[in-house]
Fold each of these.
Amino acid sequence: MSKRLAYLEKVTSEGSKDPFAWYGLAMEYGNLGRTDESLQTFEKLRALDETYVAMYLMCGNFLLKAGRAAEGKAWIEAGIAMAQKTGNSHALSELQDALAGLDNH
């Protein structure tokens, strides 16, 4: 296990409310191909801070890579709604591009 993964698991298991720690853990799991653990961690982050817009695209992408298109698309669509709600135009553009890419397949 990498030191980064061990550290992030420790920090989050101790009850950290830092969204970046949860995001980092979800990303580590996703990068290791541990899709279910990544999804569970993104879901915890979403419950902790639904306005953390970066998670929607990344979770969606991990799900898409795992062949779970419907779930991935749902995360991307939820991200679009949140980016609009929070006025995050950069994230909105990335999420819309990702959705358009899905619709073209």
Amino acid sequence: MPAKNVEHKFIVPNSVEVRDYQVNLANQAKNENCLIILPTGLGKTVVALHVIADYLTKGNGGVLFLAPTKVLVNQHYEFLKNTLAIDDIALITGEDLLEKRKKLWINSIICATPEITRNDIARKIVDTNQFNLIIFDEAHRAVGDYAYVKIAEQLSGLSIRMLGMTATLPSEKEKSKEICNNLHIKSLAARSDSSPDVKPYIQETNTEWIPVDLSSDMKIIQRYLKLALDQRYTELRRNGLRLSDNKSLSQLLNAREFVLKQNRRSAKPLFTAIRITYALNIFEAHGITPFLKFCERTKNKKGAGIKELFETDQNFTKAIDLAKSAQSNDIEHPKIDKLVEILRDTKSKVLIFSSYRDSVDVIQKKLVEMNIAAEILIGKAGKTGLKQQEQVETVQRFRDGITRALVATRVGEEGLDISEVNLVIFYDNVPSSIRYVQRKGRTGRKAQGRLVVLIAKDTIDEAYYWIGKRKVKAANGMTDKITKHLEKTKHVMDDYF
């Protein structure tokens, strides 16, 4: 039976198909500040469209649609332009000059990045009374000092409906509660892959966890880096710090405040241990070239212990010398060989995720050597990276099949509409339930998907694998916990008044 299309006076005819779960989620979100939780690829933006159309029907114009990256904001802007039957829709990012932004802010519907929105509200060039609805895409970012938090605070005294959207809640209850508090959320509207009304729209994704062994050359380098790290742990323990044997980056980072306030003599070994841990993690998960580039950048910085680490630490300098020798012999990381093996037998488009920019470059270069049309998708950072338009064009070439492989950092995880990708490869593991769900959601929507996760044995990859599994499991039960928390909060407020 052909799909029915949405019929609404503010939605362009035949532009959006009717999906019951999207309509139901939107109906829930129309009544109070709501956080929509819907896995990647199932159309959170369409849910937002239904809510926006409802607001326009009631004469409640003034919609602000926020998303964390320029390329994602552009995608929302293009979608609304093609589906909403109104003309005054604007796109605002930090690439627009102040005078241009002043004129753009008077449109009925505005798609914008959070930093420029926060700053322009503070500059008072935005009339905040013009908004009746504000949408926070990738709402899980609304923690700490992220711009979403300040914007919600700037607009909280006004009668503005707030709508958050995310693929999953964080696995930590306190962080989930913080998101809801910051965005003044009153209820959750959630669906999962297993929801009965969602199941008809998704295909199964087969996940393969593929272990790889570090080469003997890499294991020797790994040993020297661990010896350099052990030396700092010994010194820190001698200075009275209680550190567990698992040598995680998080416990070192957590010790910083205590050391700077109460144990200054540990500052030098602590910050050196943090640098070595970063170097070791990059080496284990990404290989020789990313490790050497990290070391090069670190060496040129000023900081406690850097000179000593790169000039007199015999273990660390030995690791660098061996890595340079390995690089001259074209040794990179066994994951590269495994990637070549997988792609040799694959004709379809492939999306490869790596958290580290230098690693993205290494992968893309290898794919091009294999005569695979491959491009990188990375964000803009200072003078490096891809500008907004370059990101948009890169994604479009991949969509059109001009590019067969897209190698992406985190900018490719959040919300990008990259359809018909049946193979997704995690080059590294991420200890985050949100990022795991986002990456996985890039496949298995229109046809059966395949997810491949590469794991270097006896490395940070394995640790992140177990942390990630635990967090995904915890996140799966978080919706019920937060719903109970919100209901309890609501009852307390009702009793108070």
Amino acid sequence: MTNKFIQSLIENIESFAFHAYWNNFSRKDIDKASNDGSSLMRKLGPISSSHKTATRNIRLAFPNINRAEEAEILDAMWDNLGRLGGELPHLGNFGYFTDNSRVKINGLEILDRYLEAGKGAVFASGHFANWEIMPAVIVQRGIDCQVTYREMNNAKIDKTIIEARAAYGVKLFAPKGREGGMRLMRILARGGSIALMNDQKYNTGIMAPFFGHECMTNDAAIRLAHRFKVPIQTMTVRRTGGAHFEVDVQEPMLLDFEKPLEDIVQTGVNAINQFIENKIREAPEQWFWVHKRWPKQAWIDAGVMGV
């Protein structure tokens, strides 16, 4: 068998498994889907290779944590990620901006500033709780915003997720190369907004401290905000119980547009990292610890490689 055939077979198996899950959880009501997702991941998560990654990351970030506290965070993390997975097919039915909404929003008056024509921003956040809630809130409010994302390796799975998000108004695109960067600039140039996730490793970014250890960090938010003289608008979301959430819209970060970009890019990236770090510390169990955010050397330096 050729490598191409094997790869195609693997992708078809992945797609079959994903769509079996998707169809199953789509038929459940929201609360049952969330609860069942939690039950499943609390069993499967701890036996996955990602559990080791999460454990190392938590020990790096919280060097004084005891094992009981660590186990509590890890179990609650799998609970949250399982709930997120169960909720994905239902995100269009959360009743945003209705009396019986599952999402409470703090700082709505800040968000509404971007309803005015030509008032764009670079939205920046991280993978907190069910992070899909944030772009849904932005677009459901009527803000002209496109959301960047990391394209799935499996095209069939990617297509389903894009279509599901589009059903409740979220426009996604994966910016690749020069054309991707040009598209981001065109959106901001016409007064629109873009949304970026700033808490994952970005190999073409810059080194910046995160929980006291240097890691490659996306600097696009700073560069784009400076070029188009727009604010960096932060948002966070936290799970308040089951499939219920609270979104916080903070006062925006305003750059000194009079200074040359290279004079502020490092301090700007550091500020975003510090903001994300502070929010993680408030609810560590609701962050995406399974991502290899730090380089292996940081694990070595932190003495956590023995996990």
